[in-house]
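Researcher: Next sequence.
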Amino acid sequence: MSTQDSTVRSDAAQRRIARAPLVAIVYYVIVGVTAGAIGILNVVGAVSAAGSGCRLVFSQDAPELQGDPTAGSWSCVQYIDAAGMLLAFAVAAVLLITVRRLAGGPAGWGAWVAVSLVIGIVLGAAPLLFMVWAMDFYRLTPGPIELAIAVLPLTWAVASAFLVWRRARHAMRTA
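Model: Next structure:
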């Protein structure tokens, strides 16, 4: 094997190591876009309700009806979860910025990507936690489809975090 061949192989290996795994990038794009869509849908619902004459309430207290029920003049009340909206937008921003950083190579990853990996794992665990709650509350017995829906996102999140961690560790060793 010539020196030039080993140099070309070495350069190709370095470029491969410098990039984040595609499985991780795709996961964070999907979760980030989904979080942003949830935030946007909440905003659209609030704007639509306000445009229809509903009163917007930024609280989760007991519902209250306005107007005289005997006169038939009910007005609606739309409850807005502002914290949920802001959290959805923050998660979307963090994860989409992470995608950009992951595409740039391990040198720019730092603590931002580490925090995003934890957020990704927590969000990957959400379907599993919901399934556990639903099984308890509704006395459900999960089938294979329910188990797949509950476990696959967490598996994808953990695999993505592991692959990014392994690439970062390998990049630090070779640097």
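Model: The chain has a mean pLDDT of 83. DSSP finds five helices and two strands in the chain.
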